[in-house]
Amino acid sequence: MRDAYHEELDSIGDSLVEMARLAGSAIGRATTAILDSDLKLAESVIEADQKVDELQHDLEARAIALLARQQPVATDLRIVVTSLRMSADLERSGDLAQHVAKLARLRFPQRAVPQDLHATILEMGQLAQRLMAKAAEVIITKDVDLAMQLEQDDDEIDQLHRTLFQHLIDDRWKHGIETAVDVTLLGRYYERYADHAVAVAKRVVYLVTGEHADELQADIKPVTGVEGA
Asked: Do the beta carbons of residue 97 and residue 26 sit within 8 Å?
């Protein structure tokens, strides 16, 4: 019975990894769809989000059944509860990738992103996909050091998001209000996607250590000076 119980715990972890991989693939393909105005690819991303939703619903049902049947305590309870929270982050990531694809579909056959912002959006999409790949690796390996690195990687997305806004408020902006709204939305989608990837990694830190990532970061701040000689 206990072997079956721990197999079920492991299977919940496997589902989280699959959700992360699907969400990572989705944001990569959605980025291509928005930049290339690829309607067929956009539609495939929109449809594929159902699989992420199904995985979350299945994971929730299994986790709740485990709580009811086994009444886990200590570390096992932390695994179940944290997994439920991670699944919500991953499901939301899939939704955000779908939003990018829906914008590509809405503007087809036109392109939602002006040519002079292609490089920025492409970089945001690539960074978002890499963040989610790292989050998946963190789920598998339970590597706390790698998990803590994700927040630094997220800073790059935030910087690119600020770059988009600099373009929008520049007096030389010539692409109109509709495109400005589209670019604003895209920047927000990528930023929030990255935030969810970071949240997944932080939850793994809590799962492994029993401490929140922010508390651990405060504990290991480098010393900036040495007193007196």
From this structure: yes
Has residue 218 got a pLDDT over 70? no
Q: What does the chain come to in residues?
A: 229
| Cβ 97 vs Cβ 192: under 8 Å | no
Angstrom distance (rounded) from CA 25 to CA 148: 23
151-194 residue pLDDT tens: 888 999 999 999 998 988 888 888 899 999 999 999 999 999 99
Helical axes 176-209 vs 2-36, angle rounded to 10°: 160
CATH topology of domain 2-219: Methane Monooxygenase Hydroxylase; Chain G, domain 1 (1.20.58)
Query: What is the reported pTM?
Result: 0.90
How far CA 117 is from CA of 15, 49, 163, in Å, comes to 36, 26, 10
Find tokens 């594929």 and name the residue.
48
pLDDT value, residue 10: 86
Reduced to 3 states (helix: H, G, I; strand: E, B; else coil), residue 91 is helix
Supply the pLDDT for residue 72: 67
224 band by pLDDT with thresholds 50, 70 and 90: very low
3-state secondary structure of 226: coil
Q: Dmax over Cα atoms in the chain, in whole Å?
A: 70
* 113 secondary structure, DSSP code: S
**DSSP string covering 5-61, please?**
HHHHHHHHHHHHHHHHHHHHHHHHHHHHHHHHT-HHHHHHHHHHHHHHHHHHHHHHH
